[in-house]
Amino acid sequence: MFSTLCSQREIDLIASAFSVMGADSDPGAPSAVPWRKVLYERQPFPDNYVDRRFLEELRRNVGVRRYRYWPVVREAGLVTQQLSCVAAFLTLWWYMYQGQLYPFTLLLAGLLCALLGYGLYEALGGPRTAGRTRLADLQSAAIFLAFTFGFSPVLKTLTESVSTDTVYAMSALMLLAHLVTFPYAQPSPPGSLSLNAALFGSVCLASRLPGALHTFAMVTCALLVFALWPCLLHRLRDRAPRGFPWAAALVSLGGIGGLASQSPGGAVLLALVQLALTLLCPLLLLWLQEHKDNIHGPWDEAEIHEDLSRFLQ
Questions:
Q1: What DSSP assignment string belongs to 3-60?
Q2: Fewer beta carbons within 10 Å, N or C terminal of the chain?
Q3: DSSP letters of 178-200?
Q4: What's the pLDDT tens digit per position in 195-244?
């Protein structure tokens, strides 16, 4: 199978070309001998012979999924809210860098958000990982906090020998990689490229803060924003579909509002990008679908539909 955007004129040209091949491949071939599309039998036709029925099996747009506008807009909310998450994280970092936000305040707010989010995650229900209990979740959180707090002085001095411009460039590149590689179809699992890129960029930024406690608070905030919040949002999308658009819209507005407190121009740019992603990109997708033309025919690779599992026993 191959996909292409082609016109009816191009298909007619292909059909005429194959007709010419079929007519001129072997003028001396006896008409009484029918041509069969088999390879294991010698026939009085050249190997590249095709008859005039070659394009009778031509099919278009087989199995093409048709989209509707508002469901696509709803799914685009995942992208826009993730942009706002990055903007909100950068806003919090800037407040701490300027000394306008104390680390104890950020830690207390993060603790309250984590407790509320975990309670909502459990209230929504859904499948749990085998062997995971609430006690195991609490132990994992305690271990992470203990190790992060213990290594905060190391993280604080991690980029002392690196120039500030290089740190900012690396952070911007990593956060961009986080947005590009984020698994929007499912929660971001630990160890994924998207999560690692976000945490690496967060550590680079946190190393430029005044003290080790600031670094600890910023890394903890990064875990809440880039690892735990996507899991809660996807659980909300699956278990409470009506509440998901409101949650995504609230996060998007929060990111724009936070950025507006530091950079009004940046907030306007972020709002325009979000509007384009949410409203214009779905329209572009639907417009491109009208011009989609997948061609299927005898040239496709063979597909085996028979269940062959019995041969594996």
A1: E----HHHHHHHHHHHHHHHHHS-TTS-TTS-----SSS--SS-TT---TTGGGG-EE
A2: C
A3: HHHH--TTS---TT-HHHHHHHH
A4: 999 999 999 999 999 899 999 999 999 999 999 999 898 889 888 888 88
